[in-house]
Structures are given as C-alpha cells and as structure tokens.
# Entry
Amino acid sequence: MSVLERGWLSANNIVFAADSGDEPGAAVVDTGYQIHGEQTVTLIEAALAGQPLARILNTHLHSDHCGGNAALQTHWPQAQCLIPPGQAEAVHNWDPHALSYTPTGQDCPRFAIHGLLEPGAEVRLSGRDWQIHAAPGHDPHSIILFEPQSRTLVSADALWENGFGVVFPELEGESAFDEVAATLDVIEGLAPQTIVPGHGPVFYALEPALATARRRLEGFVQDPKRHALYAAKVLLKYKLLEWQRIRLDALRAWARQTPYFRLLHTRYFSLQTEQQWLQEIVDGLISSGAAQRQESAEQGSWLLNT
Ligand SMILES: [Zn+2]
# Structure
C-alpha cells in the first residue's frame, strides 16, 4: 500500500499494488480533484510500477475524492469503479445536483461505475481482506476501510488528525451530528494503529485525534451557526485553492450562484445582507492567513490564495 499524500484540493490517493498472481488486481482508493487529473494518473502509474490499474474505489463521491476517476478510466479503460451504495443511480444518470457538485459550486467529470462497496462486506486489496464499514456524518453514503491484521484504517473524511470534514447534510437542514458521533464510536471500536485520512498525513495516535474530533463536534452541536460559518469558509477556501486568485466581484458572482452559499446565508445569517456576510467570510479568511487581498488600480480588488 502506498499513500500519495496530496494537497487539500485533492484527497489522498491510496494505491494498492497487486500481489503476484493476486486477483482482482491493483487498486486505488480515492482519486483527487479534477484539475489534478493528469498529475493523479502520473503519480498512480509511478506507484504501480508497470502494473495496470484494475480497480478504482471511492470512499464517497465528493469532487475531491472522485474527480480523478474519469482521467484514470481514460488511461486504464479496463479499470472497474466501485462506489458506496446509495448514489449509483445519480452516477448512472449523472445528476450533478444529487452528487453535490452543483450545490457546492465544484466540478467533477462524468465517470462510469461497475460495482458497490457494501458495508459489512470485504474487499481484497494487495492480498488482504479489508472490511467495509458505513461512516455516515460528513457524507451520508461514505464508507471507511479497515484491515484487522495490521489494524490499518482508511478513514476518508470521517476522521482526520485534526478534526473531520464539514457535515454536509446539516447544511441542508438534515441532522447528522449524531451520525458523526456514531461513526467516531465505530472508529474507536476498530482501534486502528495506523490511520490513513482523506486529507493530511498518515497518523498513528488515535486517542488525541478522537478527542479533537469530539471536542469540535460538541462545539458544533452547541452552536450550529459555528458549523455553518466553518462550512462557508471551507467552501470558499476550497474554491480559492482551485482559482488561486480571483477578482472579488467574480467571487461574489460565484457565491450568488452556489446553492449551499445561498442556503447557509438564508438559514443562519439572514440578519446580514448576502454581501455583508460574504465580506465577513472573506475578512475571516484574510485575518486567519488563509487568503490575501490585493488592490489593483486597473483591475479592482482580488483575493489571493496563500
Ligand atoms: Zn468529503
């Protein structure tokens, strides 16, 4: 197993080379964001050292986890794609709204799927059987993978070293903080020794990570507005990672046409105008050092990624 740790725009790629004569062949778990598609192909090709990629597995279908699927399928047309259950129809019909790409204002090229990763079942990777566990919360359909001999966990966005991903169902008014807590309990029960998160480096200390995640979750449960503001900042910073620099008026236009932004504003921050609220988020990113403002006499105000 090789972990290709990527920047935050692309989720980590976990590459499983095939054992000699091992069926059903080499695999990758999660494939990054679409603008890095070519880089993803190159990195995985190097990690496989000549073996063909036989399978693409996705822990969930956020654009930073399956955005490289299409590029990989073009490069390895025989590769079978396996996804968690619950969204197969949305992929077959390519429904970018149901798949979250329209609501988040992100992009993901269309890909084909060939099978499901059913919780309770196992999937063979590099000659070992990995358990598939449901991990709802961050995404209702997400799964995580666990290999009991080495006690290795592929935790996707359910647990990072310093928290977990935005709880997307909450943005739509569906309660999901309880699911986040239940998934953290599942992870605690598995007692992994090595944790390969969807973002950031591999880590080994489970207890402090769980404590951080539970503390964060408790803060969101106590004050859901805090989670809403965090979500808005994440969505904006994520887009800024893609743009690198954007004129403030273009950023406002993107926010106006991005459904989750409008939803967050209406649901939690309607005492401010949309413009005031967006300004507050931008100011927050600047003061935390996540972005920089640049004034240009001819071109107006820009926001820069840092
Ligand atoms: Zn995600």
Q: What stands out?
A: The two ends are 32 Å apart (CA to CA).
